[in-house]
Write a sequence for this structure.
């Protein structure tokens, strides 16, 4: 009994020594990563903290010396600004509609591409092209060659005269974004389709499933991971859409097609209101984080097809 | 319950030099029979099975199941169940859902499905795993789920495509016996593809040997072993393989070293190919009737030892079965005798066909 009582004190000093040694060796191993970490902090976290700091200031660059601390005033203003709320609504509409439409189109195209036919390589390359074009170039292309009221292809093809960009500004912008992002969705889903085991599909056929049933019960559940990834990545990129709106509609007419990135840009670089635009930036980051972590997770739980046939 | 009949069925892969994967297959599998399709890789055995399943097109000829011509029917209308080499379980479904899937598609009421699945699971010792996903099962359990998925359907034909090739050796022997017993109990017509001739010999009522898409012989395992129709079947069935030697005929006999072997069958041409199984040969004392063999390799298997060697004075290789307790040493010269001239198989060296005594 005494031996047991006496035993604990002696092993303690060596264990702390080894722990210290372990810590120093761990630091030695991690030290080479330090520059990268510092760089990342410098270019992402520091600007964010500076933005948070600005968001508590009233500061318009047009009036030098006006900078002073105002607490949460900027945030209150942001949430009572009807233009901001409108832009928020537009952002949500653009993101949800574009992601869904691009994903459905991408799924359809991927299903068509996931079979043998003559000239498959060429068709695949052509379908990917919109994704390879510079976003600004794509936006200009749609603004001029497609939507232009006098010499646009759309009016020529349908024999009508519609001012697409001023009559349907949001739809026009969304068309361009969908066109741009469908190939991305298609590629992701095609990868998922081709990762399927052929024997599993054949087993479903033998089990008596037709094409539609195989698609719904076997293919779609196995694709769910790829679809989730496509939705997540697509949403992250499309929330930040700027090129299309800046080049096609300038957010107009009025603020009809203004989304959050474009509105923040306007307030910061056309209104020079650093305080207000910083507050908006912080709000957007917070909302995006909430959506990314909670809303999407909730959505996938609701539509969780990977649990199998109920 | 039904019989399966291939009538001149061919599968031709198109291309510049089109490949006949299965070439004019004529084969009838009787009601309740266990037929094994065996052959080396690329022999078209899997393709033949997949043609019956409806997963490969039939380019020529016809296939019927029962009285029905199913040549151009989709798999789901053929009333078959298939066990795949990779098992092809639905990864996102539990074992229960995997087995119930086909019954659900058929619109069977839920209570009946539950009963059938439980029954099949009981038969295969899977009851405790019903709520697991395939990912959480061992190889042998997955194999049993694949079997269960086929059994619950109560199809008229089972099609099995090398279902044991992903199991380890011990489990394979065990499962082999289980499948054979299960098939006998259910008495469902079964076509079983394998490249393993031990599986073919032990499981099948009849065995069909394929080579390059052409049926070589279809017979009971015993008959295949005792009277192979040609050199290919003779060399393919049996382990170790039959010794095949092409020798000149001299007065109705060939010379194996010093040993003169009277041919049981008359040879037409100046040469014949003779086949002697390793167990038809035995080691004897020096000076006895026989021939000398230079030992090059001894494979000891416990009960038996297989002695590989070269015929003295020739460069022909031979395998002899010897007693496992007293095998000869490497480099030694041993005397080998033939048990019985009746055990010598004679083939035409050009066509490869068997030449029979009568």
């Amino acid at each position: 009994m005494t031996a047991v009582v006496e035993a604990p004190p002696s092993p303690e000093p060596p264990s702390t020594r080894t722990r210290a040694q372990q810590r120093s060796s761990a630091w030695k191993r991690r030290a080479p990563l330090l520059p990268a970490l510092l760089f990342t902090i410098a270019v992402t976290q520091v600007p964010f903290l500076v933005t948070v700091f600005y968001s508590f200031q009233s500061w318009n660059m047009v009036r030098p010396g006006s900078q002073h601390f105002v607490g949460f005033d900027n945030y209150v203003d942001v949430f009572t600004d009807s233009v901001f709320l409108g832009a928020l609504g537009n952002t949500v509409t653009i993101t949800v509609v574009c992601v869904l439409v691009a994903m459905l189109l991408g799924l359809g195209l991927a299903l068509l591409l996931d079979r043998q036919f003559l000239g498959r390589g060429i068709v695949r390359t052509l379908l990917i092209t919109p994704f390879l074009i510079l976003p600004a170039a794509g936006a200009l292309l749609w603004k001029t060659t497609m939507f232009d009221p006098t010499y646009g292809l759309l009016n020529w093809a349908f024999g009508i005269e519609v001012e697409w960009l001023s009559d349907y500004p949001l739809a026009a912008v969304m068309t361009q974004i969908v066109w741009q992002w469908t190939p991305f969705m298609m590629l992701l889903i095609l990868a998922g389709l081709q990762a399927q085991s052929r024997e599993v599909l054949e087993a479903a056929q033998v089990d008596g499933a037709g094409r539609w049933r195989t698609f719904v019960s076997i293919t779609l559940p196995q694709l769910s991971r790829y679809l989730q990834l496509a939705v997540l990545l697509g949403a992250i990129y499309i929330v930040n859409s700027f090129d299309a709106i800046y080049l096609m509609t300038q957010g107009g007419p009025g603020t009809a097609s203004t989304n959050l990135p474009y509105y923040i840009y306007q307030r910061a670089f056309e209104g020079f209101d650093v305080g207000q635009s910083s507050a908006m930036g912080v709000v957007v980051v917070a909302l995006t984080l909430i959506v990314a972590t909670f809303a999407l997770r909730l959505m996938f739980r609701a539509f969780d097809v990977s649990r199998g046939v109920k | 319950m039904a019989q399966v009949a291939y009538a001149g069925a061919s599968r031709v892969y198109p291309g510049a030099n089109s490949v006949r994967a299965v070439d004019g297959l004529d084969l009838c599998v009787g009601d309740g029979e266990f037929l094994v399709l065996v052959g080396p890789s690329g022999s078209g055995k899997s393709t033949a099975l997949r043609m019956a399943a409806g997963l490969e097109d039939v380019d020529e000829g016809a296939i019927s199941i029962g009285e029905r011509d199913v040549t151009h029917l989709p798999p789901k209308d053929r009333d078959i169940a298939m066990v795949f080499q990779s098992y092809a379980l639905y990864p996102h479904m539990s074992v229960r859902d995997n087995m119930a899937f086909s019954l659900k598609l058929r619109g069977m009421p839920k209570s009946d499905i539950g009963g059938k699945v439980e029954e099949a699971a009981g038969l295969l010792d899977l009851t405790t795993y019903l709520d697991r996903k395939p990912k959480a099962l061992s190889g042998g359990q997955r194999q049993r789920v694949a079997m269960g998925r086929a059994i619950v359907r109560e199809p008229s034909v089972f099609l099995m495509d090398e279902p044991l090739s992903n199991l380890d050796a011990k489990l394979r022997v065990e499962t082999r016996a289980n499948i054979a017993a299960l098939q006998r109990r259910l008495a469902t017509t079964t076509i079983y593809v394998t490249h393993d001739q031990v599986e073919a010999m032990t499981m099948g009522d009849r065995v069909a040997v394929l080579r390059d898409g052409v049926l070589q012989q279809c017979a009971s395992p015993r008959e295949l072993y005792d009277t192979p129709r040609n050199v290919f079947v003779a060399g393919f069935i049996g382990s170790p393989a039959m010794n095949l030697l092409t020798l000149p005929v001299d007065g109705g006999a060939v010379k194996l070293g010093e040993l003169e072997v009277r041919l049981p069958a008359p040879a037409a041409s100046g040469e014949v190919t003779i086949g002697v199984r390793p167990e038809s040969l035995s080691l004897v004392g020096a000076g006895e009737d026989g021939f000398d063999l230079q030992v090059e390799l001894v494979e000891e298997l416990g009960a038996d030892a297989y002695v590989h060697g070269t015929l003295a004075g020739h460069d022909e290789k031979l395998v002899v079965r010897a007693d496992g307790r007293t095998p000869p040493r490497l480099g030694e010269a041993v005397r080998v005798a033939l048990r019985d001239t009746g055990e010598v198989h004679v083939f035409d060296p050009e066509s490869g066909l068997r030449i029979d005594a009568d």
Notes: The CA atoms of residues 78 and 84 of chain A lie 7 Å apart. Residues 82-113 of chain A form the longest helix (32 residues). Chain A touches chain B at residues 197, 199-200, 202-210, 213, 217-218, 221-222, 305-309 (CB under 8 Å).
